[in-house]
Amino acid sequence: MSDVAHAHGHDEHGHHAHPTGLMRWLTTTNHKDIGTLYLIFALVMLFAAGSMALLIRAELFKPGLQLLHPDFFNQLTTMHGLIMIFGVIMPAFSGFANWQVPLMLGAPDMAFPRMNNWAFWLLPVAGILLMGSFLLPGGAVAGGWTMYPPLYIQGGISYDLTILAVHIMGLSSIMGSINIITTILNMRAPGMTLMKMPLFCWTWLITAYLLIATMPVLAGAVTMLLTDRNFGTHFFNAAGGGDPVMFQHIFWFFAHPEVYILILPAFGIVSQVIPTFARKPLFGYASMVYATASIAILSFIVWAHHMFTVGMPAAAQLFFMFSTMLIAVPTGVKVFNWVATMWRGSMTFETPMLFAIAFVCLFTIGGFSGLVLAIAPVDIQLHDTYYVVAHFHYVLVSGALFSIFAGIYYWLPKWTGHMYDETLGKWHFWLSVIGMNIVFFPMHFLGLAGMPRRIPDYALQFTEFNQIATVGAFIFGFSQLIFLAVVLKTVKGGAKATSKVWEGAEGLEWTVPSPAPYHTFETAPVVK
Amino acid sequence: MSLAQTDKYYLPQPSIWPIVGSVALLFMAVGGTMLMREIDHGGWVLLAGMAILFYMMFGWFREVIRDSEAGRYNKQVDSSFRWSMSWFIFSEVMFFAAFFGALFYTRVLSVPWLGSGDTMQQLWPHFQAAWPTAGPGLSGEESHFTPMHAWGIPAINTLLLLSSGVTVTWAHWGLKKGARGQLILGLALTVALGLVFLGLQAYEYHHAYTEMGLTLGAGVYGATFFMLTGFHGFHVLVGTTMLIVMLGRSIAGHFTADHHFAFEAVSWYWHFVDVVWVLLFVLVYWLI
Question: Which residue of B has its CA nearest to A34?
């Protein structure tokens, strides 16, 4: 058939020794290996971007400039945002998807194992481009994670690197999403109909759809930035007939669905954890599916609520205000369903359940402050204040990040074959939940009092709440070392986990041994 | 060549190609940035990255073609390919949507805003909003250009691409009824039409730059014109390359009447590029 020598000499049947050491991880086509890589990457980036947050909070402990040059402060806020979103939350969810989707569907692996590898190994490339720019003349990007022109057109070399890093991360997300969608649509075990799928798979199916629909739009937006910077175009320059606000429209057309990309998989994880520890099936499964889909559809018609202060016709403000408030309806359906699942359940409070319950309570606070910000006249007061910072940290820290913690504690025994240390887990939970609220709750008051975000210095009257927030930040930040310790301890050893792990657990992943063998469901199970 | 179908979903061995691709993109990003920032040797780093990328694509696709010809892809794998190609094309649609969105936003909203009300009074009181425009505030060469009209090369290019949609379908019919001559001829014609299209577009760009003053810098009209037609042209180039590969494989005897998704994927892609062109022809060239 072909006279070209085979590059790697593996024969037709391919049962030769797998590469070991570093090469195993570089070349792996196994969904569990790749899931682990994603999760390790996210953990490393969590500490990197978390350290940036602590530097920010240290500077803000007192008014005046103490520790950091203002431009470096701006670099930290920008990179903290970019890395937490693209380097922590999204890769962590992809890690969960890689590990769990094939296990939950009874599939032998992801649909495209080689592309799966590439989707991961693009992330370190983007990470090098982003983090490496700290070392370059002029430092890292300092124009905010939202990349608005004209700042992003004026900046130096790190801005080009960041734009290209965004392209590469987009490529990674699109390939990862195509893989996940195809796996879910085409690789389910016989009898696993769509409406029998675990909710985690549903939320990822819809998340992947959002990613494929919006990542290319972001790529288009940053491409226009790149050509405005380097090739003389005038997309975002009014003198040439362009408009800087146009970037914001295109960007938020991506970035509002993006915030649901950051939360829908969290909904999925919590919807797996709560029924297990309430020992009741998920209340309102079908309505959960429809609510997830509704949120996804609505996410495409609300983007300009991020831009109420840039100037737009009043009719547009009203439209975006009401469409945004509409999202509270399907979100409310979800919150009530989780509460109803726990209602009269035989509840126990292991660490995953604690994080899931904290998620329900605290995410709801973030949802409510979002509803406040949706009201255009209120938003005009609160725009770019610490109220906004408080809002999105409630949905992203106590929302997305807490769901990741819940998921790790929930599935780590399945992945490693060992139980984690419950005492340490509870310490991690309580310190995190208390620390997190000490950091972010006072920020509501700061914002309402008028403290602007993204500045290294502030007026005297904001001092007390800032000091409280900084103390909370250090409690929250350092308690993540407990998490690191728990994970390392569990990987190395600990009590043997049974294949079911949790008494109330349901689903195919609990039918395979713990730790899950390297290859699972090579012969598809039959789901009744 | 055996096409024995197995009932197991094919799971490939560990592969070196993805990490080679990552290295390639790292070189390309660093080299491209160096080139844009005018740092020495940026072009060489970029070229090295592109060379690695081509090496990766050659190796990776060769592996996939071997797997396919060895009959490792059963019906379920074929179905995965169909889903994934559909979603990939959807992502491409959204990529073009960003630029069509920019065209819509400037033409319908922001340019009229610049030419009316307080914005006009305070910024450029003499600006008359109309399309095409290089905007109110550019000086010198960038502000003087002749717009590109539809009924010359663009109309011919429309005919070429629409005809190529027909020839690729005719080739597909040939493949399905086992007429390999028809398959090869149809593909060759499609490739030829694609190449002529690219040649004409290159001529059009040259003409625009040298004689019409129409450049990337010619305000938002020039920017949207070149960005939309440029990305489309790049897609035609990629599509033509893929068609050439399909032509080579057809001559080498690959594909059977009921197992030829690579060919179908390329033809889907080609039709997508075709549809984008029709939109471009109407919205960028015709309605000005």
Answer: B14
User: Quick one: tokens of A152?
Assistant: 């992003």
CATH of the domain at B58: 1.10.287.70
Give the separation between CA B174 and CA B188, rounded to whole angstroms. 13
The total domain count for chain B is 2
Tell whether omega for the bond before A515 is within 30 degrees of 0, i.e. cis.
yes
* Residues B79 and B45 occupy one common structural domain: no
Residues of B in contact with A16 (CB under 8 A): 13
Six-digit token string for A407: 């998921």
User: Is A112 inside a domain boundary?
Assistant: yes
Whether B43 and B107 share a structural domain = no
Cβ neighbours of residue A35 under 8 Å, at least 6 residues apart?
Answer: A94, A95, A96, A97, A98, A99, A100
Segment B249-274 shows an average pLDDT of 97
Candidates A107, A174, A240; nearest CB to B135:
A240
Q: A246 CB near a chain B CB, below 8 Å?
A: yes
Catalytic residue among A31, A305, A418, A428, which?
Answer: A305
Q: For residue A148, give the CATH number of its domain.
A: 1.20.210.10
Q: Annotated catalytic residue: which of A133, A203, A214, A271?
A: A271
What band does A2 get if pLDDT is binned at 50, 70 and 90? very low
Question: DSSP code of A343?
Answer: T
Q: Could you tell me the residue range of the domain that residue B57 belongs to?
A: 14-72
Q: Which domain holds residue A333?
A: 27-511
Place of tokens 């027909």: B166
User: What would the pLDDT profile of A433-455 be if each residue is shown by its tens digit?
Assistant: 999 999 999 999 999 999 999 99
Please check whether residue A195 lies inside any domain of the structure: yes
Question: Is residue A520 included in any domain, yes or no?
Answer: no
Per the CB < 8 A criterion, the answer to whether A129 and A164 are in contact is: yes
Which of B1, B79, B110 is nearest residue A1 as measured by Cβ atoms?
A: B1
Is residue A271 annotated as part of the catalytic site, yes or no?
Answer: yes
B147, B248: one domain: yes
According to the model, what pLDDT value does residue B139 have?
84
CB-nearest to B14 from A27, A161, A242 is: A27
Instruction: Give DSSP secondary structure letters for A187-209.
Output: -PPTT--GGGS-HHHHHHHHHHH
A287-303 per-position pLDDT tens digit: 999 999 999 999 999 99
**What pTM does this model have?**
0.95
Q: Which of B48, B72, B96 is the last residue of a domain?
A: B72
Which residues of chain A have a CB within 8 Å of the CB of B95? Answer: 216-217, 219-220
> End of a domain among B24, B55, B72?
B72
> In this complex, do B29 and A108 lie within 8 Å of one another by their Cβ atoms?
no
Q: Determine which of A218, A224, A235 to mutate to test the interface with B (most B C-beta atoms within 10 Å).
A: A235
What confidence tens digit (pLDDT) does each residue in A41-93 have? Answer: 999 999 999 999 999 999 999 999 999 999 999 999 999 999 999 999 999 99
Q: What is the DSSP string of A214-253?
A: HHHHHHHHHHHHHHHHHS---TT-GGGT--HHHHHHHHHH
CB contact (8 A) between residue B22 and residue A125: yes
Number of Cβ atoms within 10 Å of the Cβ of A137 = 8
Q: Taking CB atoms and an 8 Å limit, are A27 and B105 in contact across chains?
A: no
- Is the CB of residue A243 less than 8 Å away from at least one CB of chain B? yes
Does a structural domain hold residue A501? yes
Rounding to the nearest 10 degrees, give the CA dihedral for residues A225, A229, A230, A231: 70
Q: Cβ neighbours of residue B3 under 8 Å, at least 6 residues apart?
A: B71, B256, B259
Does B215 sit within 8 Å of A239, measured CB to CB? Answer: no
What is the ipTM score, two decimals? 0.95
Total domain count for chain A? 1
A385 three-state secondary structure: strand
DSSP secondary structure code for residue B130 in this structure:
-
